[in-house]
Description:
By secondary structure, this protein is mostly helical. It has a single domain, classed as Rhopdopsin 7-helix transmembrane proteins. Helices cover 78% and strands 0% of the residues. It is built from 9 helices and no strands. The chain has helices at 4-26, 34-57, 62-90, 97-119, 126-155, 161-186, 196-201, 203-214, 223-230. Helix 1 runs antiparallel to helix 2, helix 3 (62-90) runs antiparallel to helix 6 (161-186) and helix 5 (126-155) packs across helix 6. The protein starts with a helix and ends with a helix.
Amino acid sequence: MPGPLASFIWYLGISFEIAFVVCSLVRRSFLRYFFLNLYFLLALGSGVSRYFFLTWFGVSSDQYHYAYYYTDALLTLALYVAVISLYSVVFREMKVARYVRQTAVLLLLGTAFFSYAVVAQSAQRLTTDFAYQLSQNLYFVGLVLTYILWGAVLKLRETRTRVVQFVLALGVYFSAYAASYALMNLASKYSVLPILGPALGCLLPLSWTFTLWRHSEDSRLVPARLLAVQR
């Protein structure tokens, strides 16, 4: 079972995820940002299922391992779709949303094929290895796509406050997560590092909820601020 600090972070993350969905409903933005809400709803379901398997079967059980790796792959896929949905919002006025979706599907299929090719030579635990590999590869693809999207936001002089801050928070989240993985590989002996990832995971729903609650859909950023960030 997780310790008190890990449990506190878990409950805190769930609270922030629920807060974003509730805020979307209150601000009548649930359908507008449907895939962002879908990601957090899936995160809630994944957290509950992991807790169930952890409680009943233990952290070293095959049941918990399957639940963890497959829910992790599902969440990474949902976050990938959320990133693509932000692409559609940014490029909507350019009438290229269809091409964005087609490219996203091809990229997803290519990532899945590459992940399968990596683990296909292993006969043991192929299913969990594939889920883990797919999750890691999609995470890397999502990281790259987020940085490209932020460049597009700056290049196109996007001024919608919600869109800009959603993309910026996503970029910070991906960067912080990548840094936490690097720290775990370099200094895994420190006990605080395993809870660093879940703690960082709380920042995304918190920042998105704050943005959604504070700014309306008509809110705009001053273009000079974007230029200042770009410099």
